[in-house]
Amino acid sequence: MRFALRLPPDKLPAHLRKTLARIYLVFGEETLLAQEAADAIRAAARQQGYSERECLTVETGFDWNTLRQLASSPSLFANRRLLELRMGDTKPGDAGSKALSAYVARPAGDAVLLVTTGKVDWQAQKSRWFLALDEAGVVIPALPVDARQLPAWIERRLRDKGLHPTPEAVTLLSERVEGNLLAAAQEIEKLALTVNERSLTVEAILAAVGDSARFSIYDFV
């Protein structure tokens, strides 16, 4: 089945509860969102019987024939398998572009392919390999959350933990962890464990949260 679908990370869990695509691409520089998306896909695959997992890490000199061989060789130990291709910040080049396009044309019948990579700029998103994955699979962009979206992102995660923050508490937490989603997630986990009252106030934030905002050297000056 061809999905040709782009999903923001927060929409991925609902998608995975309904179905599991044959190909996923997670890309972007926001490490927390990328890791959580990949973890969610791995968990969904395990739940649906993809019990074998094979990981390939793309580095300089990587042999792209390995992907072709895995795609054409059925599993010896399980009926279903998860193939992970971890590209990091390495560009696939011509060989990788051809290999990924060939996989999309003839995906392994017993596998889900999960491709993870770092930042892909607009020009690279027009490349052959990216377009092939984009047209055939589900693409999850793990992009930075800007300042306007951050309060809503924080409030959603707080409520997912069973907390009921006041607007002032959300604003304060957003200011304390500005631009740092990993720090925000860590503070939310801590609040879920330490706050006795489910209603989250400014006072509770001040008592529990350190200042984890990111500043550049220019901000400091």
Query: Which oligomeric form is depicted?
Result: single chain
The profile of the biggest β sheet is:
6 strands, parallel
Tertiary shape: elongated
The residue-averaged pLDDT reads 88
Keywords:
221 residues; two-stranded parallel ribbon; alpha/beta; elongated; six-stranded parallel sheet
General description of the model:
- This protein is of the alpha/beta class and 221 residues long.
- 45% of the residues lie in helices and 16% in strands.
- It has 10 helices and 8 strands.
- The strands form 2 sheets. Strands 1-6-2-5-4-3 form a 6-stranded parallel β-sheet, sandwiched between helices.
- Helix 4 links the parallel strand 4 (81-88) and strand 5 (111-117).
- Helix 1 (12-18) runs parallel beside helix 2, helix 3 (65-72) runs parallel beside helix 4 (93-105) and helix 7 (167-176) packs parallel to helix 9.
- The chain is elongated and about 60 Å long.
- Residues 215-221 have low confidence and may be disordered.
Write the layout of secondary structure elements.
Layout: E1 5-6, H1 12-18, E2 23-27, H2 31-47, E3 52-57, H3 65-72, E4 81-88, H4 93-105, E5 111-117, H5 128-136, E6 138-141, H6 150-160, E7 164-165, H7 167-176, H8 181-194, E8 199-200, H9 202-208, H10 217-220
Parallel strand pairs: 1-6, 2-5, 2-6, 3-4, 4-5, 7-8
Q: Short summary of the structure?
A:
The chain has 221 residues and is α/β, with parallel strands linked by helices.
